[in-house]
Backbone:
């Protein structure tokens, strides 16, 4: 495993739409393992592939209850509303309040191409939304209701 460099604002890679993953090979597994290691090293709760310069639809999340890998994720259900503070490894030093759904259900593949569904409330729902937004070039700063 290896640490990857985290791309930061104002890098244009952060504003691009990512393409779907179509090849589930050994390289994908290596990339996902590197993303987990890079996220942990940076003390983040989520990381999206464009944040390490890879324009593919891959997200990793860990809010303290284990690693979750999401390949080609889609939010298929959402409910409620939460207001809370958010930051991003690609926007160092920037924090602000956003409003997100309080519950989301995500359909995604793993590194083998198998389909799974994950549900998350609260911080996990927030992390899913934040990271999946990255895949469409959307940063949390476009959801800000208050900048800290
Ligand atoms: Ni982020």
Residues:
């Amino acid at each position: 495993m290896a640490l990857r460099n985290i791309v930061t604002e104002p890098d244009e890679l952060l504003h691009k739409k990512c393409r779907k993953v179509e090849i589930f090979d050994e390289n994908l597994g290596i990339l996902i393992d590197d993303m987990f290691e890079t996220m942990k090293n940076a003390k983040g709760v989520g990381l999206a592939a464009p944040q390490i310069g890879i324009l593919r639809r891959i997200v990793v999340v860990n809010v303290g209850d284990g690693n979750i890998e999401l390949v080609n994720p889609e939010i298929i259900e959402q409910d409620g509303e939460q207001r809370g503070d958010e930051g991003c490894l690609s926007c160092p030093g920037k924090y602000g309040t956003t409003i997100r759904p309080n519950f989301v259900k995500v359909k995604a593949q793993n590194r083998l191409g198998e389909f799974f569904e994950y549900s998350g409330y609260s911080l996990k729902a927030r992390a899913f939304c934040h990271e999946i937004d990255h895949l469409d070039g959307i940063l949390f700063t476009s959801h800000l209701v208050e900048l800290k």
